[in-house]
Design a protein that fits this description.
alpha+beta, Arc Repressor Mutant, subunit A, two-stranded antiparallel ribbon, 3 helices, MarR family transcriptional regulator
Length: 66
């Protein structure tokens, strides 16, 4: 596994309890590395900027079509 997938899986398990920076620190990342991974996940539409308790990002859920 690469670090981006590890971060994504940790974000899923976190469920908003820790901030995105604290999640990166759990993996040994500094703030710049964490922001780089977040921007990659945003560009892949895996996460979205939406407040989820302590975390500013949550999993991307596409809109439901009627």
């Amino acid at each position: 596994m690469n670090i981006k997938e590890d971060y994504y899986n940790l974000l899923i398990a976190n469920n908003g309890c820790l901030s995105e920076i604290e999640l990166g620190e759990k993996l040994g990342l500094n703030e710049n590395e964490t922001q780089r991974i977040i921007s990659q996940l945003l560009s892949e539409y895996k996460i979205e900027h939406k407040t989820n308790k302590a975390c500013d990002y949550s999993l991307f859920k596409p809109p439901k079509t009627k």
